[in-house]
């Protein structure tokens, strides 16, 4: 197993957010990675400390088979920083966008919204998207590239605005089926017991822009 980290980032998670230091947390991350890549040896797995955001601790996971770089599989592990996070609802939104639009979003590989797992924290694993974040790279782009991005964002917004649900509410996964293939449901904006299916409505969406 190999790993990389940053002292400043470690201080941010450990001190500011009261997270377990990366040096010890990575051992549990390795165990999680080996449950994803069954049969993988620690030498094949790289655990990378990445810059997190205000809501998630971010860790990169990759597996390289042999010495072939093209055989590398890369994922991103997201661990919510706050107990109030509703990870299953975030998954529901990502699944909605993937199923009903052509807007590219990172594919969710797996998740657990509870602390009953090897990490001791809720987590989401997604396929890693290559490239650079728009926030830091946008000022360096030329005018033509900026216009192209603005046009693409406009197309994305148009797709989202064209989608309609038969009822208003919050996208959720069924309480008794938190799999990635589960049918999406709509919960009222408030007053819903997350462990109960009472008040939930099966999502029926119009304006689907996903090509068959």
Automatic annotation (TrEMBL):
It holds the Pfam family APH. Residues 71-164 form the Aminoglycoside phosphotransferase domain. This is Aminoglycoside phosphotransferase domain-containing protein.
């Amino acid at each position: 197993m190999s790993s990389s980290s940053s002292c400043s980032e470690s201080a941010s998670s450990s001190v500011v957010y009261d997270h377990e230091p990366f040096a010890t947390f990575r051992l549990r991350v390795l165990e999680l990675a080996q449950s994803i890549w069954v049969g993988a040896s620690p030498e094949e797995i790289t655990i990378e400390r990445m810059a997190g955001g205000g809501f998630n601790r971010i860790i990169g996971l990759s597996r390289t088979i042999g010495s072939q770089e093209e055989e590398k599989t890369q994922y991103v592990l997201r661990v919510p920083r706050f107990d109030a996070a509703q990870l299953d609802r975030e998954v529901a939104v990502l699944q909605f966008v993937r199923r009903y639009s052509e807007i590219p979003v990172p594919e969710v590989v797996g998740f657990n919204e509870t602390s009953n797992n090897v990490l001791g924290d809720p987590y989401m694993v997604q396929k890693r998207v290559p490239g650079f974040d728009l926030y830091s790279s946008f000022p360096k782009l030329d005018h033509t590239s900026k216009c192209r991005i603005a046009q693409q964002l406009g197309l994305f917004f148009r797709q989202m605005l064209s989608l309609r649900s038969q009822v208003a509410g919050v996208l959720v996964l069924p309480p008794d089926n938190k799999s990635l293939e589960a049918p999406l449901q709509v919960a009222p904006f408030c007053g819903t017991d997350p462990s109960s299916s009472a008040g939930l409505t099966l999502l029926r969406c119009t304006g689907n822009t996903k090509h068959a």
